[in-house]
C-alpha cells in the first residue's frame, strides 16, 4: 500500500462534508452586500455625481475626472470599512483567465507617515505590462506599456483572499499603448453597443417609446468535481486539465441515475458555501443539480445584461475554485476531462430586452407585436445562417474539440432549432404572406390522477442536440465550451445580429422610400430572408450520422478542427463585418487569430508531453515490473512441471510486451511529429500539424495504455482510476 494512488484514496475516503454556517439574514438582505452597487452609490455619492455616473452607464457616455475622484473616495471608504486593504483593476486578458495586480490603499507622505489614498486617476486607469500578456504581435517584448480602464457598467466588488484581507476589484478593459483591445471585454462592449443601436432603430418602426435595447444572457455552467488528493495524484489533471488515460469504469452514466439525483453530501456542502459567497457578490445563482455524467454538476443564474453576466461567470469560475479548496475538492472546467462520459458546456441563453420592458424574442398573438417578434426572429436566423462559420470559430478550442459531436454535445455543424410551431409560422409567412404566431392555448395532460394538479404542456418541445435552439423566449447556444470566456461568443453573436439588423433597416428604408406600405414591405423582406436562410433550420437529431450527410447536402459547413474553424476570423468577409460594426479593426482580429492558434498549439503540446511522460515513466515502467512478476510465476510453474498451467500467464506476458511495444513506438512517433511541427515557423501551418500529425497519435497510445490498466494488478497501477475519481460522496 505504498503506492501514492492508495495514499490519496485513503485521504479522500476519510473526508466528510464540511459544515457550512448559513447567513442569519434573508437572501434579500445580504445579496450584493460585497458589491459597490447603485444603491451604495446613491447613499455615498452626491446627487449630481450619482446622476452622472448612472447616466453614463445608461447612455454609454464618459465620466469626467472630477466625478471619478468622488466615486474613488466613496469606493475607498466603503471598501476599507468592510476590511479591504488593497484594490485592483480586474480584467480579462486573452489568456482565458482573469488577471489582477493588487495595490495597497495607502501612500507615504514626505515625512514618512502612511495615509490612505485612492484617487480618481487610480480608479480610472492602471498600467499592467502589455507585452507579458497574449497580444498576437500587437506589442513587442520591449514595448511594455498597456492600460486597464474602469468599466462603470459592471459594479466593483470585494474579494476575500482567504488570509484575513479583502481586495476591491474594479472590472476593467485592457488595451495596448497604441489603443488596440487586448482583452475580451472591450470588443464585447462595442458589439453590445452596436446591437443596441441597430436593434433600437428597428424597434422604432414598431414603437417610438423604445429608445434602448439591452442584450441579456444566462450562462449555465457545467463542471466536474473531484477530491483534491485524487486530483494531485493525477499529473495529467494537474498539468492538462483532463485525463489523457483512463479505462471506463464498469458503471459510468449508462444507468442514467446521476442526472438530477441526490447531491452527494460533500458536493452539497461546497455548493451551499459557494452560493452564499456568490450571492454576496451579487451573482444571482438560482439552480444547482447533478448533471448526466457521474461527478458532473451544473449551476445556472438568472438572466442579466450580457456584459455583467459574463463578468459574473468569470468571477463565478474563480470563486468556485476558491471555495472548492476549502472543502478539499477540485473543480474541473475542461470540456472533456474524462473519456467515455459526457463533457461539459456553458449553455449561453441569449435574448434582447427593451427599456420599455419588452422581450423582443417573446412570441405574441397581437398583430403588431407578432410582426415585431417575427422580424427579430427571422433576422437572428439569417444572421446565424450567413455567419455560421464565424459563430463556429467563436467556440473553437482544444478542449471543445473533444466534446463537440461526441454524442453528448451539439456537433461542429451550426444549425438552428425553432420548433414545429414557429417553423410552420415561418412557412406560412413564405407561402401565404401570413404571420400567425400561435402561442397556443393552455394544453393540459390528462393523467387520470385527480390528486395531481393539471400539468401544462409547452407549445414546442426542446431539442438538446441543436447548437442554437429557440427555447420559448430566447436562444440557447449550447455549443460553447465550459472553460470558455463567453465574451468571445457573445461578441460574435451580437455583432452578426447587429450587422443583419442594419441590413434589414437599409432594405426596409429603400422600400419605404418608394412609397410601399410599411407592414407589407416588412413581410416581403422577411419572406426573402427566410427563403434564403431556412436551410440552417433543423428539427431532428443533431447527433446522428444522417444529419452530417444531410448538412453536407444543404451546403452547411462541418469545421471539425479548431485551426480550420479559427481561420474564418481572418477571412475578408469576417474582417469587413468587424470593421462595419466597429467591434474590432483588422489588427485586433488578426492578433486574436494568432493568439487562439498559439493557445491551441500550446494546449495540445502540453497534452502530448504529459501523455509521453505518463506513458513511459508511469505506465510502461509499471507494466514491465508487473511483467517480471508474472515471468517469475511462469518460471516457477514450469519448474514444477506445470507447463500447461503456465500458458495463460505466458499469453499475458506476450500481450503486455506487444502493448508496451506499440506504446513506445507511438510515443516516439508523437515526439517526432511534435519536433516537426515545432520547426515550422508559420503559426497556421504549425497549428494544423498539431491538430493532425501530433494529435493523431493520442487515441492509439491511449487505447494501449487503457488496455494495460485492465491487465496490470490493481495494487501496482500508478494512476487513480476513473471509478475512484468520479464518485465523490
From TrEMBL:
Cross-referenced Pfam families: Gln-synt_C (PF00120), Gln-synt_C-ter (PF18318), GSIII_N (PF12437)
Domain GS catalytic: 184-619
GS beta-grasp domain segment(s): 85-179
Top-level taxon of origin: Bacteria
Entry-linked InterPro entries: Gln-synt_C, Gln_synt_N, Gln_synth/guanido_kin_cat_dom, Gln_synth_cat_dom, Gln_synth_gly_rich_site, GS_Type-3, GSIII_N
Ranges in a coiled coil: none
Family assignment from sequence similarity: Belongs to the glutamine synthetase family.
Protein name: Glutamine synthetase III
Species for this entry: Spirosoma liriopis
Amino acid at each position: 500500500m505504498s503506492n501514492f494512488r492508495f495514499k490519496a484514496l485513503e485521504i479522500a475516503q476519510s473526508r466528510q462534508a464540511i459544515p457550512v454556517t448559513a447567513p442569519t439574514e434573508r437572501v434579500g438582505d445580504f445579496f450584493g452586500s460585497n458589491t459597490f452597487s447603485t444603491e451604495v452609490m446613491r447613499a455615498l455619492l452626491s446627487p449630481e455625481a450619482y446622476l452622472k455616473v448612472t447616466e453614463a452607464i445608461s447612455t454609454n457616455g464618459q465620466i469626467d475626472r472630477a466625478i471619478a475622484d468622488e466615486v474613488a473616495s466613496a469606493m475607498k471608504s466603503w471598501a476599507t470599512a468592510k476590511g479591504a486593504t488593497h484594490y485592483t483593476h480586474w480584467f480579462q486578458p486573452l489568456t482565458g483567465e482573469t488577471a489582477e495586480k493588487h495595490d495597497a490603499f495607502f501612500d507615504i507622505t514626505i515625512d514618512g507617515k502612511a495615509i490612505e489614498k485612492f484617487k480618481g486617476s487610480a480608479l480610472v486607469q492602471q498600467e499592467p505590462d502589455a507585452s507579458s500578456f497574449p497580444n498576437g504581435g500587437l506589442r513587442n517584448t520591449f514595448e511594455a506599456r498597456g492600460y486597464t480602464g474602469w468599466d462603470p457598467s459592471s459594479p466593483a466588488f470585494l474579494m476575500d483572499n482567504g488570509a484575513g484581507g479583502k481586495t476591491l476589484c474594479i472590472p476593467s478593459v485592457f488595451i495596448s499603448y497604441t489603443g488596440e483591445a487586448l482583452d475580451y471585454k472591450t470588443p464585447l462592449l462595442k458589439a453590445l453597443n452596436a446591437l443596441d443601436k441597430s436593434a433600437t432603430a428597428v424597434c422604432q418602426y414598431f414603437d417610438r417609446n423604445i429608445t434602448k435595447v439591452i442584450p441579456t444572457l444566462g450562462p449555465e455552467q457545467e463542471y466536474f468535481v473531484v477530491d483534491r488528493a485524487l486530483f494531485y495524484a493525477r499529473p495529467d489533471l494537474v498539468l492538462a486539465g483532463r485525463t489523457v488515460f483512463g479505462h471506463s469504469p464498469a458503471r459510468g452514466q449508462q444507468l442514467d441515475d446521476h442526472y438530477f439525483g441526490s447531491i452527494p453530501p460533500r458536493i452539497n456542502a461546497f455548493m451551499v458555501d459557494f452560493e452564499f459567497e456568490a450571492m454576496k457578490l451579487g451573482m444571482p445563482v438560482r439552480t444547482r443539480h447533478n448533471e448526466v455524467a457521474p461527478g458532473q454538476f451544473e449551476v445556472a443564474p438568472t438572466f442579466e445584461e450580457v456584459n455583467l453576466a459574463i463578468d459574473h461567470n468569470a468571477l463565478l469560475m474563480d470563486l468556485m475554485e476558491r471555495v472548492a479548496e476549502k472543502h478539499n475538492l477540485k473543480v474541473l472546467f475542461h470540456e472533456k476531462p474524462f473519456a467515455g462520459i459526457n463533457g461539459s458546456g456553458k449553455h449561453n441563453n441569449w435574448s434582447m430586452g427593451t427599456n420599455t420592458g419588452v422581450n423582443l424574442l417573446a412570441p405574441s398573438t397581437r398583430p403588431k407585436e407578432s410582426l415585431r417578434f417575427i422580424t427579430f426572429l427571422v433576422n437572428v436566423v439569417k444572421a446565424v445562417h450567413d455567419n455560421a462559420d464565424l459563430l463556429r470559430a467563436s467556440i473553437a478550442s482544444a478542449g471543445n474539440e473533444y466534446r463537440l459531436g461526441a454524442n453528448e454535445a451539439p456537433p461542429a455543424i451550426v444549425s438552428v432549432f425553432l420548433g414545429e410551431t414557429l417553423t410552420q409560422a415561418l412557412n406560412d409567412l413564405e407561402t401565404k404572406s401570413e404571420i400567425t404566431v400561435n402561442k397556443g392555448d393552455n394544453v393540459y395532460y390528462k393523467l387520470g390522477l385527480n390528486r395531481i394538479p393539471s400539468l401544462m404542456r409547452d407549445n414546442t418541445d426542446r431539442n438538446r442536440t441543436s447548437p442554437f435552439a429557440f427555447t420559448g423566449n430566447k436562444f440557447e447556444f449550447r455549443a460553447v465550451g465550459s472553460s470558455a470566456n463567453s465574451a468571445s461568443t457573445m461578441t460574435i453573436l451580437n455583432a452578426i445580429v447587429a450587422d443583419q439588423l442594419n441590413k434589414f433597416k437599409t432594405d426596409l428604408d429603400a422600400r419605404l422610400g418608394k412609397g410601399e406600405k410599411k407592414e407589407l414591405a416588412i413581410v416581403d423582406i422577411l419572406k426573402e430572408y427566410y427563403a434564403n436562410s431556412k436551410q440552417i433550420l433543423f428539427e431532428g437529431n443533431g447527433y446522428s450520422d444522417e444529419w452530417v450527410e444531410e448538412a453536407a447536402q444543404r451546403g452547411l459547413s462541418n469545421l471539425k478542427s479548431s485551426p480550420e474553424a479559427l481561420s474564418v476570423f481572418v477571412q475578408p468577409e469576417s474582417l469587413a463585418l468587424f470593421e462595419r460594426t466597429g467591434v474590432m479593426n483588422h489588427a485586433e482580429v488578426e492578433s486574436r487569430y494568432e493568439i487562439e492558434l498559439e493557445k491551441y498549439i500550446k494546449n495540445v503540446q502540453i497534452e502530448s508531453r504529459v501523455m509521453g511522460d505518463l506513458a513511459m515513466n508511469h505506465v510502461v515502467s509499471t507494466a514491465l515490473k508487473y511483467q517480471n512478476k508474472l515471468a517469475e510465476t511462469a518460471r516457477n510453474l514450469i519448474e514444477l512441471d506445470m507447463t500447461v498451467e503456465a500458458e495463460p500467464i505466458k499469453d499475458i506476458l506476450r500481450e503486455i510486451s506487444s502493448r508496451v511495444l506499440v506504446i513506445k513506438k507511438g510515443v516516439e512517433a508523437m515526439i517526432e511529429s511534435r519536433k516537426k511541427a515545432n520547426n515550422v515557423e508559420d503559426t497556421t501551418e504549425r497549428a494544423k500539424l498539431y491538430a493532425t500529425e501530433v494529435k493523431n497519435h493520442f487515441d492509439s497510445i491511449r487505447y494501449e495504455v487503457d488496455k494495460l490498466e485492465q491487465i496490470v494488478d490493481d495494487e501496482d497501477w500508478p494512476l487513480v482510476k476513473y471509478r475512484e475519481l468520479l464518485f465523490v460522496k
